[in-house]
Amino acid sequence: MDKESNLIQLRKEKILDLKNSGVNLYPNDFKPSCSIKALKKTIEENPETLGEKGDEFFMAGRMMAVNIMGKSSFIRFKEGAEQLQVYIQKNMIGDDNYSLFKKLDIGDFIGVKGPLFQTKTGEWTLQAKEFRLLSKAMRSLPEKFHGIKDPEKRYRQRYLDLIMNEDTQNIFIKRSRIISTMRQFFEEKGFMEVETPMMQPVPGGAEATPFKTWHNALGMELFLRIAPELYLKRLVVGGFEKVFEINRNFRNEGISTRHNPEFTMVEFYQAYADYETLMDLTEEMFEIIVKKISGSTTIEYQGQSIHLNKGWRRISMIDSLEQIGGVDGKILNDPEALLTLAQKNNIPISKKDRHGKVLTKVFDALVEPKLIQPTFITGYPVEVSPLSRKTDLNPELTDRFELFIAGREIANGFSEINDPEDQQQRFLMQVRQRDEGNSEAHIMDSEYVEALEYGMPPTAGEGIGIDRLVMLLTDSPSIREVILFPHMKKISE
How many Cβ atoms from other residues are within 10 Å of residue 113's Cβ? Predict the structure, then answer.
């Protein structure tokens, strides 16, 4: 029997002994009067109400440390991210309760009642007048000194990670605040929050491989959405001219430090706006969020200072290839020379890739990693932008941008196609690419084209990767650090 199994067996024996002694291991009648966080606020704002003759509090939490000193003991217990010290005396809670307390383990949940006092070191501590066991833990927690260092274990058993690692808790507290601040920003700008289908008969809105499922009652194949875009734009057609959705998307792709098959985005659409309007809006929103979360517009990410105050660089893809990627501008319109450059830099190019696709792949390799400070890249080729409006001056390019920070894409936005015939032709171009072997190309969505035929106002839309934004604002190197339960390969039995 290994060490862990032996410890579990000892706990089971202790649990049986407590049950046989008539102890209720899992009662449900103890109600805390306040949280540790609220109590600390009282300590800060109204300390005069506290003291041994002051207010008494019902408090509950998980025991994280115990120091037994004969007939008295100190406990440190945890509720959420907060901890509180408790002083327990045998003559205060009675012999039976003190005997029960001494049989408990780190990880058990307890309830206590009493006033606060200050120890000789000045720490506010609850003097227990009553003591209850609220929930008995069968497994022991990892040792506090060692914690959980193995990322695999932290991700698979996130609950243990949250118990033992305060930094992990703080990441997800910040994540919640980021999303809350984002939602508030959109609402104050007059956007309406909506919900669109997560199972779709035609997957669209991005170039990606979808997950498939089957609906028995309808007798039809459905796809987990890769993006909500085409449904959100249907709502613009219907008259909801400023909409946003904080959404879960699913893409059947590889797992890496930047990719998880299930991820969170916000997508938003605004009528009578263009892609430049959304760049301004994005700068404003990011500045508000980072000030709320970090207290400054400058953050540290993986050893680099990044400045998120408004006024970000805006540069076309072509210019960025020359100025940042070091590519000779003379070869950018020469397909053969560009292919030679790609091969020289070990950039994988398919024989079926059109010129715009090759340009984009060269950009991904030579420019993207160098975009540390916030940068909008504009002027994407039509071949890689099947839903973006063509520019008025050059029909081979689109009114589209992608936002890069810390060498990775954070957002993608563009002026939308509202010409149904143009959209029909773009879909047909994507269908040809699928026939040529590009499994991620768009599927024809005739119902969406029909919606456009009823008329959609000039519109711009954008998607922002929330997981990547949280990575940035919490200095997290991997997307798994900011997703509570990232997908993991099944452990072989």
Answer: 20
Q: List, for residues 42-86, the tens digit of each pLDDT value.
A: 888 888 778 777 789 999 999 999 999 889 999 999 998 899 999
Phi, psi of 337 (to 5 degrees): -65, -35
CA nearest to 193, candidates 265, 267, 248: 267
Residue 305, C-beta contacts closer than 8 angstroms, at least 6 positions apart: 298, 299
Q: Report the C-alpha gap between 391 and 396 in whole angstroms.
A: 8
Percent of the chain residues topping a pLDDT of 70: 98
Chain segment 235-250, per-residue pLDDT in tens: 999 999 999 999 999 9
CATH architecture of 3-135: Beta Barrel (2.40)
pLDDT in tens, 313-332: 999 999 999 999 999 999 99
pTM above 0.70?
A: yes
Residue 493 pLDDT? 53
Distance of alpha carbon 399 from alpha carbon 460, whole angstroms:
9
Structure token pair of residue 174: 């910040």
pLDDT computed for residue 146 by the predictor: 58
- Outline which parts of the chain fall under CATH 2.40.50.140: 3-135
Contacts of 403 (CB under 8 A, 6+ apart): 279, 282, 312, 374, 375, 376, 377, 409, 410, 411, 412, 413, 464
Of 127, 111, 4, nearest in space to 55 by CA: 127
In the block, tokens 């997290």 appear at 476
Q: For 352-361, write each residue's pLDDT tens digit.
A: 888 999 999 9
Where does the chain hold its CATH 3.30.930.10 domain(s)?
164-325+367-481
Q: What's the token pair of residue 426? A: 């773009």
Residue with tokens 């063509």: 390
Residue showing tokens 């400070």: 373
Tokens of 491: 């452990």
Q: Say whether domain 164-325+367-481 belongs to CATH 3.30.930.10.
A: yes
